[in-house]
Amino acid sequence: MLLVGGMFTAGAILLFLLVRHLWWTEHRPSTALVMVIAFDWAVAAMVGSMILVSLTSGRGRRTARGRRAARARRGRVTVELQESDPRRTTRLTGPGAEMSASADIRVGSRLPALFLFAASAGLAAFVVWFHLQGQSTWIGTGVSLVLASYVGNWARNAWPRPEADS
């Protein structure tokens, strides 16, 4: 979760820098500006909810698949590399390995879902306000409102569910 959160944080920072650049260069109603703001808002909401999940929920547990929690297979592997010419491929054969594992994180708090719902409502309100100020086009506003509904759907999916007895 730390690696994914770090990548999303880096993406949010890069999107913020792009927003700042577009804010200073766009002098008319913009499609790109409001869409980049909305994507940055959504990524920041995702990072915030990941932080809240890690702070308020229990530790993750491994999911057993078969007899072991992590499975590994070893053997001979062939990989085809396609070069710039579609008719020319290079085959590499040698020893290889495949591993699969997973971890379930039980969400024990409603706080991440409420945070995402507030982020969704805030994004929708901001996009409408931004459009009424004459800063965005209809296309940018529409795409950004659809993205706000996606963030609202993330909130619905983040809501804790009662644990089913297996």
Structure report:
By secondary structure, the protein is α+β, with helices and mostly antiparallel strands. It has two domains: 111 residues, no CATH class; 44 residues, no CATH class. Helices cover 55% and strands 17% of the residues. It contains four helices and four strands, in the order H-H-E-E-E-E-H-H. It has a two-stranded antiparallel sheet with strand order 1-4. The chain has a two-stranded antiparallel sheet with strand order 2-3. Strand 2 and strand 3 form a beta hairpin. About 5% of the residues have low confidence.
Topology:
Elements: H1 2-25, H2 32-56, E1 61-62, E2 71-82, E3 89-100, E4 103-104, H3 111-132, H4 138-158
Antiparallel strand pairs: 1-4, 2-3
Content-based structural category: alpha+beta
**What's the mean pLDDT score?**
81
Taken as a percent bin, the fraction of beta residues is: 15-25%
Terminal residue distance: 27 Å
* Overall form: flat
Question: What composes the largest sheet?
Answer: 2 strands, antiparallel
**What's the count of strands?**
4
- Helix count equals 4
Strand order of the largest sheet: 1-4
Q: How many distinct domains? A: 2
Q: Which residues sit in consecutive blocks of at least 5 with pLDDT less than 50?
A: 60-68
- Rg, alpha carbons: 22 Å
Q: Give the helix proportion (percent range).
A: 55-70%
Reading the helices and strands in chain order gives HHEEEEHH
